Structure formats: C-alpha cells, structure tokens
Amino acid sequence: MKNYLTIKDIDSLPIWVSEARALKRNPTEFKSLGKGKTICLLFFNNSLRTRLSTQKAAMNLGMEVMVMNFGSEGWQLEFEDGAVMNQGKSEHIKEAAKVVSQFCDIVAIRAFASLTDKTKDETEVVLNGFIKHASVPVVNMESSVGHPLQALADAITLDEQNIKARPKVVLSWAPHPKALPHAVANSFIQMMQLQDADFVITHPEGYELNSEITKDVQIEYDQKKACKNADFIYVKNWSSYSDYGKVLNQDSNWMITQEKLGKSKFMHCLPVRRNVVVEDAVLDGEQSLVIEQANNRTFSAQVVLKKILENS
Ligand code: CP
Fold it and tell me: How is residue 116 annotated by DSSP?
C-alpha cells in the first residue's frame, strides 16, 4: 500500500483489525521497522487525538516525527494550476509538497471541508494537491470527505467488544451549535459496509448524507425506533449535505440520553459537547466506549504506517 486515503484502501478489514489488535498487545514489536525514517504531520485544522495518536504510532515503529500546524504557521498555499499569485497566497502546492517530501518518508495531512463549496470540498483540493505533487506516501488524517483513521479505530473498538456475530449498530445524528463536516460519518458508513452487521442510520429529515456513500443502508427518521435493541449507538453531528454546510435543526430531543441508550454501548469519535450531543450520565457511565475509541487511534495509525513502511 502506498497511500492511506480512504476506507477503500483497506484490502481486508478483518485482517487489518486483527493486526492492529496484535500491535496493541505489543506496540513496540516492530520498533526497528521505522528506524531512520521520518513522518511529517501537517495540520491545516485543530486536533488532539489525531495528532498525538499518529505521533505515538510512528514512535512505536521507531520513526522520527515532525509536526507542523500548517494552517497557522505555514505560508498560505495556492492550489490552482496557472494561478497569478498576486494576492494573499505566498506558496504553490507544487513547491510546498516537493519541499516537504525532501524532509520525510511519509506525509500525513489534516485538511477539513470548507462547508461553503461542496464541489471544491469533494475534489479534496489539499489532500489531492499533496498526492499529486509529493514524492512520498500520503496518509489522510481527516480530509473534506473522509476520516479513515477514525473509522479503522472504530472497527477495532467494535471487534474488541465481541458482543455477537451480527450486532445491531446505529449511526445517530445529534444536535450541535456549529456546522460540522461529514467526514467521520462518511468513513464510519463505508467501514460498516464492510462488516456483517444490522446497520441503521438515523437523522432528522434534511440531514441525508451523500447517497453515493449511504447506498443501500437503511435510514430511519425516528431515532427511538432506530435505536431499539441496538448493541452500539455511534453518535455524530453533521451539517446538511443537500443544503450544504447549513445547520437546519438543533432539536435537543435528538441528544443521546441514558434512557435512550438503554443497554447499548455508546460511541463517539470525540471531541464531544456534553449535554448538547450527549448527556453527562452516558459519557460518565460504563457503557461509553469513547476513551477506548481514542486509545485505538494509535493502533489504527500504527497498522497503516506499518503497511506503508513494509511497502517502501
Ligand atoms: N476524533 C478525532 O479525529 O479527534 P481530533 O480532532 O482531536 O484529532
């Protein structure tokens, strides 16, 4: 594997999950694999988990790590071919990606959706700019439309619970005051499509995600009905996809409560707004898997980096 850009880069989800769980049992087993290699983590947006877990994963493999908050520290990048750069943008992706490639063996990029221009977001301008012009493998640390490291960590977390052969998993929208991207939900759906599970998505009308991603997944507008007998409820806010980037609904009735959760396990990628998305009792209770999901981010990143290093 050269790049890790989407869930589609996983050739066998069960094998990757099993390898990640083996790495979790013995994180430094392949410490010599990354010796003398460097990963450069470029952040165009904020992060806690992705930054620290990817760094930890690289260190477990013996790599050196360089981190740059590109959004606040780097030059503003131009991505258009033939642009006359007489405005605010100081550096073209053509030079930037080539320069970064000289300093590292893998480059990892976080660049969120703008949520103002759907077409532009869906062309993945930043990620694809690096793929096109960098000479080293590229890892997606959350792009406009996907967060495949998170989804792989979620697959590890589901597997560890080992509740039953075909669990019921619900992806539920929840309210949020700000417009949030679709990336986590998209990748979670793509990952669930590789699982043997009874998978249901629930959200208010108007919050339908890209139908090319949701494909044949059951969508239920009644959250209570969707969550009935669920083994896992994965909660995430996203802004409208059809009315792109808009917050159409802040109905607090969609917040996840302990009563709604029942006996299900609770999942969320974090960060999460307490008592807006989910009430304290759920996050503080024993059915919450959020801390273990975050822990598994290290091993999802580590299996990805290990495969890239083995291929290079
Ligand atoms: N879940 C996740 O990607 O967290 P961060 O935004 O903190 O990296």
Answer: S
CA–CA dist 245, 213 (Å, integer) = 17
Average pLDDT value over all residues in the chain: 98
Q: What is the CA radius of gyration of the chain?
A: 19
CA within 13 Å, CB half, 309: 23
pLDDT at 118 over 90: yes
CA distances from 8 to 136, 188, 209, 272, 295 (A): 20, 12, 18, 27, 23
CB of 150 closer than 6 A to ligand 1?
Answer: yes
Nearest ligand 1 atom to the CA of 110 is 8
Ligand 1 centroid to 269 CA: how many Å? 7
| Residue 136 near residue 45, CB atoms below 8 Å | no
- Contact predicate 237/176, CB 8 Å: yes
- ∠ CA 151-179-169, rounded to 5°: 35
* Peptide bond connecting 271 to the previous residue in cis, omega within 30 degrees of 0: yes
- Place 1 in a pLDDT band, splitting at 50, 70 and 90: confident
Give residue 71's pLDDT. 85
Our mutation pick for probing the ligand 1 site, out of 187, 267, 270, 272, counting the most ligand atoms within 8 A of Cβ, is 270
Pocket flag, ligand 1, residue 67 (CB < 6 Å): no
Ligand 1 centroid distance, CA of 156 (Å)? 16
